[in-house]
Amino acid sequence: MKGFAEHFVDDGKAFQLDNAAILIVDMLNDFCKEGGAMVLKEGLEVVEPLQALIAAAKEKGVPVIYVNDCHRQVKHDREFEKRSPHCLEGTWGAQVIDELQPKAGDYCVKKSRFSGFFQTDLDLLLRDLEVKTVVVTGVVTNICVRSTCHDAFFLGYQVIVPEDCVRATALREQESTLWDIETHFGTVTGSREIIAKL
User: Fold this and answer.
1) pLDDT tens string 88-120
2) What is 18-197's CATH topology?
């Protein structure tokens, strides 16, 4: 009898990038830069491959969408029951890091929960752009990237995650989350493979 992990429909190698968009999740000062509220030191490791992916996407006219954590300074923010306050609206911490600043023609979506789709206009924007495939990048793999991938899948998008363009809170979480995404929600590959198919 086959084990649970052996029931793959396909190996994810034959993915296509028709009607794609690049989602850049939470590449923000509070998560990536010294002095930030919740710094993931490995976050900057994705900058170079992300820069290459963004450049290739722009060359091919593929939309680039920044999905940015941004919390209003309200009386009660549910997310801060679990995590320290971070990415407060109007602060340095909520800004995209200098290395990946949005350019003219890019889109920015603010979110105040882990998923980029939860009570934002990301789904509406993607549908207006006639996007069918989302390439999800950024930090952190096991929280906001994963939540965004799940919701994208639930909403009917093809989900692709370049493993060199995401980082988790630890290696175990990186491997486990990417395995979950690959076996249940989308395709895990590398940025070079995506660039080759753009």
Assistant:
1) 999 999 999 999 999 999 999 999 999 999 999
2) Rossmann fold (3.40.50)
